[in-house]
Automatic annotation (TrEMBL):
It holds the Pfam family Radical_SAM. Its main location: cytoplasm. PROSITE patterns: RADICAL_SAM. This is Radical SAM core domain-containing protein. Keywords: 4Fe-4S, Cytoplasm, Iron, Iron-sulfur, Metal-binding, Methyltransferase, S-adenosyl-L-methionine, Signal, Transferase. GO terms for biological process: rRNA base methylation; tRNA methylation. Residues 179-420 form the Radical SAM core domain. It is found in: Cytoplasm. SUPFAM superfamilies: Radical SAM enzymes. The lineage of its organism: Eukaryota, Sar, Stramenopiles, Ochrophyta, Bacillariophyta. The keyword Hydrolase does not apply. Its cofactor is [4Fe-4S] cluster. Residues 1-21 form the signal peptide. It comes from Cylindrotheca closterium.
């Protein structure tokens, strides 16, 4: 959940200009992709579609994905006219402006990295030409590029990602974990959000744009590049908890999520990719459940009055939403019935032990209906971001809430607040400039 609108006028001009350009050069769209699922880059093609599009067997598409996985663009990597120093140019330029330096990878070092697990097979001129025909220019020229990188003291790293077509920016947050040596990436599915949750910075912006599946995948590509260059723990998990409500852009979210978990593509474990929805409708769960990922419900409250106060766009009763959630879970294979319920805890709004009791009761009744359901409750202490009405909960109240749930046998975690000072924490994802407006 993050956005920006300070750039609105500039973006509008860019948007109009880009759309005229697109009229002249219509993108090649693989079959089976609906008009609503805009796609411009092979980054979000299904692997088989890419193989067919590149002709001559599976070797080319594998070589392309060996690069994408490491945040390397194959169009540049295999083009001998591009110097080594240009391969990660977008990151180095930003670091230079900030007076920072980082590792410059040589092609030989990168080659070792991308071919470590397979027999080397590069892309020749004909293959590069096919790739260009399919997806146009490089990802950073045609889909999205990095505009800014900021790192909090705890290592949480926020990327400001510019969408090439519209000129809008979204924020993508890398959260490194010391214990595992890996990072989780929090990505955005929309610019802004129409759900208007009263505690959320993104909700104040309204919805400005749905991201295409390749714009969603590009956030992962760019994050992997940044992790490699800045030597941050590599990203092996993704949460759709950035800017936007995934159910309001379900087709693109599901397509992108399946690219993340495809073993031929980003290759992430299904349990390590989580799509979180506030559930604008009961059907939202079923739609998002089509992706082979963990499904999460940002429930925030179980009583109708409080939920309406926190998520004012709620149009359905808790019973109707609950039924949609249960139907979606029942339709999933057992291994995908592990699910998360998320609660942003706000001081004296929804953080009492009575609130915890209501939630426990609500969850217990669902477990009784879905065989194999494994719920985890994720508590997200609200971050103070200048909202007058809401405050950060006291730590003792958060612990008491957790204790109440664990004492009734539920797995319940408190999400550590990360990246506070860089506005990279939950509910803060709207650019500072946008908030100033
Ligand atoms: S918290 Fe609510 S307003 Fe904010 S991004 Fe999520 S669904 Fe949208």
């Amino acid at each position: 959940m993050v956005c920006q609108k300070a750039l609105f006028l500039t973006a509008l001009v860019a948007f109009i200009r880009c759309n005229f350009a697109l009229l002249e050069q219509a993108p090649k769209i693989p079959t089976k992709i609906k008009e609503s699922e805009r796609i411009r880059s092979p980054l979000s093609f299904q692997f088989d579609d890419l193989t067919v599009s590149l002709e001559r067997g599976i070797g080319r598409s594998r070589a392309v994905w060996e690069c994408y996985r490491m945040g390397i663009d194959p169009l540049w990597f295999y083009d001998e006219s591009i110097a080594d120093s240009q391969l990660d140019d977008s990151v180095h330029k930003i670091l230079k402006q900030q007076g920072r330096e980082a590792k410059s990878w040589t092609r030989d070092e990168l080659k070792m990295l991308i071919t470590a697990k397979r027999r080397e097979q590069g892309l020749g001129k004909a293959a590069l030409e096919s790739l260009r025909k399919v997806g146009g220019e490089s990802i950073e020229e045609s889909v999205a590029t990095i505009r800014d990188i900021s790192m909090a003291r705890d290592g949480t790293t926020k990327l400001l990602v510019r969408l090439v077509e519209s000129g809008f920016d979204v924020e993508t947050v890398i959260i490194p974990w010391e214990e595992t040596g890996r990072s989780t990436l929090c990505i955005s599915s929309q610019v802004g959000c129409a759900q208007g949750c009263t505690f959320c910075a993104t909700g104040k912006m309204g919805r400005l744009q749905n991201l295409s599946s390749d714009e969603i995948c590009a956030q992962v590509f760019l994050a992997r590049k940044v992790c490699r260059v800045l030597d941050i723990n590599p990203v092996d998990g993704v949460v759709f908890m950035g800017m936007g409500e995934p159910a309001d852009n379900a087709a693109n979210v599901v397509r992108a999520a399946n690219v993340l978990t495809s073993q031929d593509q980003f290759g992430m474990a299904q349990r390590k990719v989580t799509i979180s929805t506030v559930a604008p409708t009961p059907d939202a769960f079923m739609e998002l459940g089509r992706a082979n990922t963990t499904l999460a419900w940002s429930i925030h409250a179980t009583t109708p009055e409080l939920r309406k106060e926190l998520v004012p766009t709620t149009k359905y009763s808790m019973n109707e939403l609950r039924q949609g959630y249960l139907d979606a879970l029942k339709s999933r294979p057992m291994k995908l019935r592990t699910t998360m319920l998320e609660v942003v805890l706000i001081d004296k709004i929804n953080d009492s032990v009575e609130d915890a009791d209501h939630l426990a009761q609500f969850v217990q009744e669902m477990i009784d209906e879905v065989p194999g359901m494994k719920p985890m409750v994720n508590l997200i202490p609200f971050n103070d971001i200048g909202f007058q009405k809401f405050r950060k909960p006291k730590v003792e109240r958060v612990w008491a809430f957790q204790e109440r749930l664990t004492s009734r046998g539920f797995k319940c975690f408190i999400r550590t607040t990360r990246g506070d000072e860089e506005s990279a924490a939950c509910g803060q994802l709207a650019t500072k400039r946008k908030r100033a407006e």
